[in-house]
Amino acid sequence: PGQEYESTYLGKMPPGFGMIAALQGDLDTRDGEGRVYFRQDSSRDALRRSAEIINRAFPEDDEFNPTHAVVITWVDVTAHEPHSRGDGNRKRNTFQLVIASMETASYAIVLYPRDGIQFTSTPANGQSVVMHGGFSKGLVKGFLFSSQGPYYRTTTEDEASIRALAEETNSGQRGVWVYEIGTSPYFTNVVAGEVTDLPAEATRRPAYTDGQQVEYPHFESEGAQIEVHPVQYQPHQPGNPEVVVVDDTDINVDGESTAVHCWKIITILLAVPVTFLLCFHVFSVFSYNLGTCANNANKCSQFADCKDYSSGYCCHCRPGFYGNGIQCVAEGNPQRMNGKVYGKVYVGNSPSPVEFTSNDLHSYVVVNDGRSYVAISEVPYTLGPSLQPLSALGGVIGWAFALEQPGFKNGFSIIGGEFTRQAEVTFLPGNEKLTIRQEFKGIDEHDHLAVSTTLEGRVPEVPRGSTVQIERYSEIYQYSNNLITSSSTRDYVVSLPDGSTETRMYQWRQTITFQSCQHGDSLRDMKPTQMLSVDQVFVMYDANNELIRFAMSNKIGDVNGGQPQENPCFTGRHGCDTNAVCRPGEGTQFNCECAAGFNGDGRTCYDIDECAENPQICGFHAICNNQPGTFRCECEDGYQFGNDGHTCTVVDACEEGTHDCDIPERAQCSYTGGSSFICSCLPGFFGDGRVCKDIDECQPGRCHQDAVCYNTQGSFTCQCRSGYYGDGFYCSAERTKTQCETHRDSLLGAGPRGPRPPIGQYVPTCDENGAYEPMQCHSSTGHCWCVDRNGQEIPGTRSGPGSRPMCESHSPLLCINHGGVPPPVGPTPRPDVHPLPPGTHLLFAQSGRIEHVPLEGHDMKKEDAKAVLHLPEKVIIGVAYDCVEKMVYWTEITSPSISKASIQGGEPTEVIRSDLDSPEGIAVDHLGRTLFWTDSVKDRIEVASLDGSQRRVIIDSDLVNPRAIITDPPNGNLYWTDWNRDAPKIETSYMDGSNRRVLVKDDLGLPNGLTYDPQSSMLCWADAGTHKMECTHPARGDRRQVMEGIQYPFGITSFGKNIYYTDWRRDAVVAVDRYAGKESDQFQPQKRTKLYGITTAYAQCPSGQNYCAVNNGGCTHLCLATPAGRSCKCPNNAVGVGCVERDGGY
Question: How far is Cα 607 from Cα 626, in angstroms, rounded to an integer?
Answer without folding.
Answer: 9
